[in-house]
Structure formats: C-alpha cells, structure tokens
Amino acid sequence: MALTATARAAENPRRRALRRRRLLGALFALPALILLGALVVYPVVYSVGRSLFDASGDRFVGGANYVEMFQDPATLKAVRNSAIWVVVAPVLLTGLGLVLAVLTEKVRWATAFKLVLFLPMAVSFLAAGIIFRLTYEQDPDRGVLNAAIVGVHDAIVDPSPYPTARAREGKGLSGSPGEGYTTAGVRPGSDTVLPFVGVAPEAVPPRAVPARPPETAADSLSGAVYLDFTPGAGGRQGLIDPKERGLPGVTVEVLRAGTVVASAKTGDDGSFRFAGLADDTYALRVPASNFAAGYPGVDWLGPTLITPAIIGAYLWVWTGFSMVLIGAGLAAIPRDTLEAARVDGATEGQIFRKLTVPLLAPVLTVVFVTLVINVMKVFDLVYIIAPGPVQEEADVLATRMWLVSFGGGNDQGLGSALSVLLLVLVVPAMILNIRRFRKGEA
Fold first, then answer.
1. CB atoms within 10 A of CB 38
2. Could you read off the pLDDT of 277-324 as tens digits, one per residue?
3. C-beta separation of 247 from 195 below 8 A
4. Spans of all domains in the chain
5. pTM of the predicted model, to two decimals?
6. Which residues are CB-contacts of 191 (< 8 A; sequence separation ≥ 6)?
7. How many CB atoms lie within 10 A of CB 383?
8. What is the dotted CATH code of the domain comprising 166-290?
9. CATH T-level assignment (fold) for domain 72-150+300-410
10. Which residues are CB-neighbours of 339 under 8 A, at least 6 positions away?
C-alpha cells in the first residue's frame, strides 16, 4: 500500500506537468485557431447559409439557388469550361514537367534552364494576364504571336498588293473589290487607263515610278494601272497626271467572251501590254485577288479559342513549378537502379517508361492533384485575358461566382451557391492530397 501511494504521489506531478503543457500548447494555438475560424470557417458557414436566401438576403428560398444554378446556361458553360481546365491543364503540366525534368538532367546548363522556366512563377497572375492579353491581340502590329504567324504566312503565300484599293467611280471600271473590276469592250491597238484610289501614299511600293501607258501597237492591248491621286491636291480624275504613280505588281487579265486568254502584272510605272491578239473585242479585268484583305492572323481572343488561349498562358506560368517539383523527386531516385537497367541493356525509353515513371508515381500524383485544386480556383487569368464580349465563353466557376455576386449580377444568393459548389468540388482533391502527404511522411 505504501508503494502504491508513493507511485501515485510521483504520478500526480507528471500529470500536472502534462496538463500544463497541453494548456500551454492550446494557448499558443489559440491565435491561429481564431484566425482560422475568422478567415475560413466563418466564411464557409456564412456562404452556405447565404446560399439559401434570395438576392436581397431577406427571403428564405431553400435550394432554389442551387436549382437555378444548374438551369442557367451561363453557369453551365462555366461548369463545362472548369471541366476542360481540370482535364487538360493538370495533364499537360504534369506531362511537360516530367519531360522537362528528365531532359534538364541531360543538358549542361541545367540550373540556368530551370531558372528560366521557373521565372514566370515570380510574375503575378495580373501581370501574366496583361502580357498574354497583348500577346494574343489579333492586330499583328500589337499581338506578338499573330505578328509571327502573319509573317510566316506572308512568306509562304504572297499577300494581295493593294487590299484597300478601289476603282475610281465613273471612269470605265465596273465591279467591286470582292469580285474584281472589268472594263467595257476594247479592241487591239488601243490603250486603257485604269484609275484606282484608296491606297495610302506610304502603302505604294517604293519602286513605283510616275505612271505612263506603253505605246500602242495594232495587235496589242496596253494601258496603265495607277493611283489617281495627286499629292497637294489638283490633278484630273481619270487621267494620268505627272505626279501620279503607277501601281506595280497588279494582275491584269484579258477576257474574250468571258474566258481569260492572257494575264500579266504591271511594271514599276503601272503599265501592261498584251501583244499578239487577234482582231476581236476583249475586256480587261483587274481580278479580286489584287484587293483581297491580308491574312488577319488567328483570332485567339474569339469565342472558339479563348479557353485554350488562357490555358496556354496558365501553362507558361506553372510549367516551372511542375518541373522543379518533379525534378526533386527525380533526384531522389536511386541511381544504381537506373545504372543496373542500362547495364542489362535497357534503352533510355524503356528506363523512362518502366522505371522512372513508376518510381515517380507518388510525386506525379501530388503534382497532379495540387494542380487540379489550383485550376479549379483559377480566376485572374480568365478575367483579365478574356475581352468583355467573350467573357461568358471563357468563364469558369470562380469568375462566374464573382460576376454573379459583384460584377453586375448583384445576386449574392446565387453567388454563394456557386461558391459552395466550388468548395464541394475542391475539398475531395484537398483530402486526397493531404492523405498522400501523410503517407509520404509515414
């Protein structure tokens, strides 16, 4: 009995010390718990409650907001776009990160290469959105991407020389830029002047010289295509004046009974000549190919490509993150395992498929799930890059929630329902990620 009392007396101080430690730990954790409750728990509970009321917050409507959410075409479009993001972006980022992490092990300047790829992570989404909004501009003079595309296109396909030109009205040419211009009947031995306007002086090629028609001959048709505009005013419409320049490179065709029998391009002075023609009645035509609008580039910010374009901007920002994380996992793989496979005659492709990828599976899963959580919450890039007219085509759940609540919709009941939906979709991925981290620690 004396021993038992002594043991109890010794145990009481230990219990008091343990109780004191727990109390001290709770006191240290209390500020964090208060912040967690104020910044996370309270907003979640309030949003769930607010989603059960109407737009004004005065009338209880139960699940009406959730029903409306799945009946609203704009919201369904946002759900569809969010699904595209979840399927496409994490898969591409994980794949790109894996490939780049493996490749950087084989390049000499691996550290510099990783640094360059990781730099976009230092750029805010706001700045990245502005950068790509300008990059995707359709005007090649402003959009870098379309400037490159138009440059390559024009190097392969000759652009039309005078997309803005139109014939001087009432001066012998009938038609339109879309269908071409045609003269009345002409016979060999005559020359015809074809006056055009609508071409800015700086758009006339530098090689252009003052216009003059070639000399006529009995068996030929000749003439000149020129800019019927005299700098400094003056001049006579439909007649070549001394200061008026020819339009070089214009295609002119000769038609007989509606069939093209000859074709030529104008010279530096805008002149053309068709020799060896039989004595008959012909018509001259300046085809529409001379006035076709230039290649405008790709409409990246249009309704069709806006979501892929924004995903491209997201890839630019997050590829470095994926590569660095997977690279860290790759560095932890035992090298003797890979060397043993090489000694046994395995190719690099077989090593990648059958060793590297399976050994990296835990890291790849963590990266993938983290990116899934991140893309579900993407907001900045979508809101900044998408122009107003196509904003609805690019909306995801986060942007739709903001627009409905604060961006003009002023329906915080429906907006709260959207926030609850977003939470319900994100929480399972977060739980999966936490479990993966705990398994890794174990």
1. 10
2. 888 888 899 998 888 877 888 899 999 999 999 999 999 999 988 998
3. no
4. 72-150+300-410, 166-290
5. 0.76
6. 213, 214, 216, 221, 222, 223, 224
7. 21
8. 2.60.40
9. MetI-like fold (1.10.3720)
10. none
